[in-house]
Amino acid sequence: MELITERLTITDFTPDMAYDVHVNSLDEDNRRFVPDEVFETVDEARETVEFLISRYGGNEGPFVHPVLLNGKTNIGYVQLVPIEGGWEIGYHIAKKFTGSGYATEAVKAFIPYMLDKMKLDRIIGICLADNFASKKVMEKCGFEFEFEGMGDYQGEKKKIAKYIYIR
To answer: Which pTM was predicted?
Structure first.
């Protein structure tokens, strides 16, 4: 895959990206909002990158793709993962790159590609209710607010916000 926007390239992982995945995963926002995606060592990140690469050939997912600034600097990822009842969008931009619209730009490019690839008509977006930046990204990308309250978030009951994107 190679999706190119004005400032970003969304592509497939390669094994040499493990270090960047490790570093990008360590910021406080990642620890707070997606702690299962924190890689304390490069080896942990390498194992995950190898697994994600192995998923590209099928239709089961997860489909996680790095986001490169100007086609060079790895600043995060965008993903589509299977959940009960459908598919969920996910994204993370490393803290030092946030606030510049990169997540919105990446998600806007990624959604139509994945809808077509997976022959979907909807994608779900779930975040912690106090993750205002994530909620804003989904709203800017055309997701409709569906629910806020207690729900499952990474295997625990937490206050979440749920959105849905319908083609």
So the answer is: 0.93
